[in-house]
Amino acid sequence: MPAEEAEKIGRLGRHGSMGDTVEVRGVFHADCAEHGGDFDIHASSLTVLQPGREVDISPDAERYYAAALSLLFLLLTLLPLARRRTEERRSARALLVEQEEK
Residue 53: left (phi > 0), alpha (psi -120 to 50), or beta? Predict the structure, then answer.
């Protein structure tokens, strides 16, 4: 695309920013000889349809609460299971030791 067309872009998209919404007109090449056979568009004009803007990326307090409650639920669910498995292993070892002594 010509450099003067590319200069119309005011904001590029990145983390925390939504870039300009643009319309590009040009010729689509499914097998561009100029660029080694790649797909590309040789743009002739660019129109900015909507300017870009900053995006609020701060996390919600609700998500923190949901994550904390999920972690609490996980711990309350897994701790009794882990305790039971530990007791089962101890009793299995005790049985093995008892059988070896006989």
Answer: beta
